[in-house]
Structures are given as structure tokens and as C-alpha cells.
TrEMBL record:
Membrane-crossing segments per the record: 7-23, 35-54, 63-82, 102-126, 138-159, 171-189, 218-237
InterPro entries: EXPERA, TM_Tm6sf1/2
Membrane topology: Multi-pass membrane protein
Keywords for this protein: Membrane, Transmembrane, Transmembrane helix
EXPERA domain location: 60-185
Record's protein name: EXPERA domain-containing protein
Length: 272
């Protein structure tokens, strides 16, 4: 029986739980120098397992191996976030102490949830589309942009923030994600679009309709206005506004990551 590739990737990613549990209970693997070396070794093993599993029907797109690897790390990200919030224990108790102390920040925790849920589902979806020979350019661009936005804040925010003096060799494990996001975005941009055939008359008819008669467009406008308002609110929070709402009800972790987020948003929205 041929098991779908996305199921194989999903099952393989769950083995990350065993790896984390082993590291958490073997003190020799918790050394700051051993952690990145062991991590690289594990990822090499994951690649070999995936390669051997599909060698009889190798994927045409090399991004398959990237998605398989990142699905594995997505489970690690989710476990990290869950453990920091107290939902799990016994998997990564050592990591903030000898690995990456900055994973206790609010940004890192939410990034862990996003990577372990949204990105993880995107990996499985793209693997499925890949196996069926279907296009996934749009989804791939969303993934690349999402990962790039995360890492563009996370990687430099650590270097110049309060955790700059706590950088250990494990910090460099974040760079492959940044590079993969950049290369992935370039690869997907170079792929041809698959646009639906829409006649000029249909376009003109839709544009002449009132916004209230276009529910999808109306919903998009409402969501964008809400996102704009929330972004402005986050700007007040990250700049340590003194109002009660931002200082008491919506406090932020005292790192440079919120400021980096606002700076990148400003550069992205600059019309020049």
C-alpha cells in the first residue's frame, strides 16, 4: 500500500518528540556546543530517511526535502511554545538555559505557535500538491513571506537586543530558515502564474458594482482596516506609550523585537 507523502512527512515529524525527550534527559546533549552539532546531525538523519523513503519515486521539486525538514522543526517550535506557556513539560526544559535564552520572549513563543501550526499545515499541504502535480505557487509565496517576516525580526532582534550578551552557538541554527525563506521566495516568484481566465466584460461588470454588493471585497476591506488599526496600536505599545491600555492591559516584553517589527512594517509600507 502506497502511503501518501504528506502522511509520511507528518509521521516523520512526530519523531521530533522523541529527540526532544532524549535531549532533555541526557545531560551530555545539553552542552551549548553539543546542541547545535546534535541538531545538525539529527537534520542530516531526517534528510537521509526522507531520501531513502522516496528514492523509488523521487520528487521533481527539491523543495520537498526542505518542507520535510521544516515540518520536523515545526513540531519542535510548537513544543517549545507549549512548554513555555506551561501546557507541556519534560521536553525542552534545558533549552532556555543552555540553548537559546530568548525563546522565553513573547515574540519567540508566538512565532513558535505560528510555525508549529500554520507553517506546519502549509508544509503538508504543499507536499500533497507536489505529489499530485498541482501548482502551489500562491501558498508557497505566503509561506516564504511569512517565514521571512518572522526571521527578519527574530534574527537581528536577538543580536542588538537585551539578549545580545547571551548568544550561543545555537543562534546560528536560525540562519538556515532565513536563507530558505529568501531562496524560496525567489524560486516561487520565478514560477509561472496560473491565473483563471476572466473576460474583460466580467472584470468591468464586477468593478461597476457597489462595494456593498461584493461581500468578499467588503470583508477584505474590513479586515485590512482592522489590521491597520492593530498595527498602529502595536506601534504605541512597542514605543512604550504611557497610557493605561498599552502599559497594563497590553504590555510587551522588553526586547527590540517589537521595535524591529514596527520598523520593518514602516519600510514595507513606504511608497518610495
Amino acid at each position: 500500500m502506497n502511503v501518501p507523502q504528506e502522511i509520511c512527512v507528518y509521521l516523520l515529524s512526530l519523531t521530533a518528540l522523541g529527540v526532544l525527550y532524549t535531549m532533555n534527559n541526557v545531560p551530555a546533549l545539553q552542552n551549548p556546543l553539543v546542541i547545535p552539532a546534535f541538531g545538525v546531525a539529527v537534520m542530516v538523519v531526517v534528510f537521509l530517511v526522507v531520501y531513502l523513503a522516496v528514492r523509488h519515486k523521487p520528487p521533481k521539486d527539491p523543495l520537498f526535502y526542505v518542507f520535510a525538514e521544516f515540518s520536523f522543526t515545526g513540531v519542535i517550535s510548537l513544543v517549545m511554545a507549549l512548554e513555555q506557556d506551561g501546557f507541556t513539560s519534560g521536553f525542552m526544559e534545558f533549552y532556555p538555559k543552555t540553548g537559546e535564552p530568548y525563546i522565553v520572549t513573547a515574540y519567540a513563543i508566538m512565532m513558535g505557535y505560528w510555525d508549529g501550526v500554520v507553517h506546519f499545515l502549509l508544509y503538508l499541504f504543499m507536499v500533497q500538491r507536489m505529489a499530485k502535480g498541482l501548482s502551489y505557487r500562491g501558498v508557497g509565496l505566503f509561506w516564504a513571506g511569512s517565514l521571512l517576516a518572522n526571521m527578519a525580526v527574530y534574527v537581528p532582534g536577538i543580536v542588538i537586543g537585551k539578549y545580545a550578551s547571551s548568544i550561543r552557538p545555537t543562534y546560528w541554527l536560525n540562519l538556515p530558515f532565513l536563507v530558505a525563506a529568501l531562496l524560496g521566495a525567489i524560486a516561487f516568484f520565478n514560477r509561472p502564474r496560473e491565473l483563471p481566465v476572466v473576460t474583460a466584460d466580467r472584470v468591468a461588470m464586477e468593478q461597476n458594482r457597489s462595494l456593498l454588493r461584493r461581500p468578499v471585497d467588503l470583508l477584505l476591506v474590513v479586515c485590512l482596516l482592522g489590521a491597520m488599526g492593530f498595527t498602529i496600536f502595536r506601534g504605541f505599545v512597542s514605543n512604550q506609550d504611557g497610557t493605561e491600555t498599552t502599559s497594563l492591559h497590553e504590555p510587551h516584553h522588553a526586547t527590540t523585537m517589537p521595535l524591529f517589527t514596527q520598523a520593518i512594517s514602516a519600510l514595507r509600507n513606504d511608497p518610495s
